[in-house]
Amino acid sequence: MRVAVNAPNGRAEPQNPSKIMLVEKSLSAVAGYLGANLSERTTALSERPKYPAITISRQVGARATTIGKCLIRRFQSREDDSAPPWTLYGNELMQHVLRESNLPEDLSRYFQEESSRSWTETVEEIVGLHPSSYDINRRCHEMILNLCRLGHAVVIGRCGNVLAKDLPNTLHVRLVGSAKRRVAYLRQCLSMSEKEALAYAKREDQDRRNYAKENFNISNLDEPHLYDLVINTDRISNEFAARMIEEAALCKASEPLLH
Fold first, then answer.
1. Listed residue (105, 86, 228) closest to 150, CA to CA
2. What CA–CA distance (Å, rounded) separates 248 from 229?
């Protein structure tokens, strides 16, 4: 089975500078996959999609990208050459939307999961965005929904669990952890002091709450009923978390929808 791994490179899931080229290299593959598959929107919401999909919501520092990569590697052993490759999606989705909108991809830094009201007017005044930032966000949301319809996609962030809540093939996961463990992870990845890492985590988590509130009227991302599976990553290894998600995703996709 072909597998593409695209590591999200947004602020919320820190990456080492040496890994940035891996993201850039993978972006062209993402664009090709999206172009080939999203142009054929033949799966209606009323139809059961053929392949499973996964959305991952996360607290900052809960290792979503690392666990997502482990998950992709686990699916790699399930060979099916006729199926689309299992692929991990993060902020490169917004870069693809900007490219399709004939806008510079580096504008993606303005479209993080954060409160948008303060910066959208400024960005639009400076560069004269056409389509508007609202339309760009809408296109990204539509892309996430279609990726989940197609299946074999692991989508991190941007409230994918809300967008794909009615798709029976899609498992919705929330990764959480104690502030102490998450701050320690951020310190290791970003070479921050404890004070800096704690401030970073608080700011990013608040930005994500603002994004959910403004775009979907979700006031609390930690509400368990928004997800099928909530995992505390404090005492669970990346591989174990990936195994749990893998099994849950395959079971949900194969079981009749519960009412």
1. 86
2. 8
